[in-house]
Amino acid sequence: MMKDRRVTRALRLLSVLALVALLFALATASALARAAAPRPAAATTSFRATIKDGRAAAQALLAQSGAASFSLALVSGERVVWQETFGDADKATSTPPTADTMYGIGSVSKMLATVAAMTLVDQGKVELDAPFARYVPAFTMLAPAYRQITVRMLLDHSSGFPGSTYSDLVTATYFPGYLQQVLDTLAIERLKTTPGYMSVYCNDGFTMIEALVFAVTGKTYAQYVQDEIFTPLGMDHSAYPLEPFPDGSYAKAYTGDVANPREVLNMLASGGLYSTPSDMSRLARMLMNGGTYGGTRILSAASVAEMGTDQTLLSFNPVPSNMVRYGLGWDTVTDPGLEAVGVGAWNKGGDSADYHATFTVATKARLAFVATGVAPLSSSSLGTLGQRVLLHALVDQGTLRRVPRPLPVAAPPVKRASAAQLAAMEGYWGNYNSVLRVSVSADDPQALDFAQLTADDWTPTTSDLRLRSDGRFHAGDSATGYGTMTAGGRRYLVYDFIGGYGNYRNAVLMMQKLAPETPLSAAWTSRLGQVWLATNGQPDSAMYSMDAMTLLTFGDVPGLPGYVTVTTPIYSTQVVDPVSDTLGAMFLQIPGMGSRDLEDAVVAKHGAEEWIQLGSSLYRPQATVPALVAGPNTVTFGAEGYAEWSTLAAAGTATVASGGATSWRLYDSDLASLDGGSTFPATVTAPKAGCYLLLFGPAGASTTVTVAPAAGAAAAARATMRLPIYRPLLL
Hints:
This protein has 18 helices and 38 strands. By secondary structure, the chain is an alpha+beta fold. It has four domains: 2-160 and 195-396, DD-peptidase/beta-lactamase superfamily (Beta-lactamase), CATH 3.40.710.10; 419-514; 522-621, no CATH class; 625-719, Jelly Rolls (Sandwich). The longest helix has 18 residues, at 2-19. It is globular.
């Protein structure tokens, strides 16, 4: 239950990220740039005003978010001019974090992966534009074009990979087999786009840097980063979670007032690092110095410059956004909050279930900001704090005369929409985790209503959107607007709003329009509403310990023929194109964030049953889960070693014998996690009829489960044998 809330927070953050990108506000930027009077920062600048304002903003952010703690650092030139922590790293002991308290930094870990890759480029061991398969021959995919994927494409999100291998991404302890699992998963996947065609956020590309490092150097990724980056930079409080950390060395994340177990992300290069703002400030200074730190060269100046070059300029990107201008590793090489005042900066954000971070480096201004914290903070909220701090710092050092004023938040005046403008907006739209219906209001032919697909029905989200003089549809007096455009032969919904510190506008391709297709075949129609259960995760994978994380359901899009929706708690609701009776194909192509983490839904025969492969996860049908009868039952693990599901027809106990099984989990009839363990013999108590018992064990092993129904449970069991149908919540 506890971890389910953690993943829910993470998924909501992904949803926000899918909607957020930043567009340069030309008029504002020009005015502010003219007002700027760049002058070199004095070495003795105190930044007192910046620190005073930033401290107040940080304290307000902590109070507003309810987060337990966070830590930050501001760098000017060679100095950390402000380092401070807020809140409690351990609520139970009221212990505040220190400068050395580690936090998970999520996807900011990608910056270390990029630096590691670029050291190999500098050493002449790797070529950026050489095929990745040259260095890792074990890498293969179903699409022959995988041979075109270069090392650069892994680092700028343009490989065309589906996205993220989520199965076993989070486990209770470090899972060293995750890298191989990603390679194995890619081997059975198609490409989402032609390599290099567009940049779409992709975790698996950075996980492949682990394979690259090992193939070229013979060292594990963690060891190479330690030797080539952490040690020479003196990053003594940065580590991957390969082993348990000493208590007190890292900040705890919480659900309410209960501390969560330490989060272990097995995607080390993509998101697994724990670090501190103090340590990351050393990395920032190395980058600001063109690759050197303390007289030691880590990277060549050319490699640092290449990392900070906009890699999206020659790819499909019809709405360039200053928030999503991928460099190598960087989310953007034109941070919008600073770009709006004529100051260049690079930014990377990071979000996991428990931790969040932001990392911004303004090389010419010789400033950097790093912040790390626990949920419910986000990289977005920390990034906004960073923009505020850096804008004030630019004033303190004399680069800007004043901090920019926020843009007006009122909507432009209403204008009459033509039939063509309304028709362009109407219809069905999809992105990586949701399906949207836009329709003309029944009450007013000039107004539009939005509704999101939830389970098998439409849930209203925004109403009374009207065309404004800026050519966008706005709801009420909101500055947020929506429009459409055609590019690459596809129709896109454009989302436009004021972002960050409020001194610039964002625009992003939010969704792709869905055109009606041929009605579903009988095979796909028969699968609608059915439920499948995950079978192939590691026993300590977080997906098994969180409510309803094991479920997959198929649905359709009401009112739009020809599509199938695939709903899981990790991916939320994706829409696929059933190109055959056994393949629901991913097809969305939205640069930036809108088509990240897509998957094909592949139907495969497993004996007489249909099983579903979705990325790295394999699902079995819920409808054929066997029931355990009163008395002894033998459960045998098949040749593949998949987890075995069973139902308990009545309330009572089930005793799992020693030998055979290695761990177990108990769920209620709605697949909410109740209990689990790895000690045997184990007596499992089912509080009511219809509970599920999930057992893990090695291939070919068997175990005995002895069921003892509670007194008077037989009649209740007969009345509750029908298995539930899960209706997923909108995350």
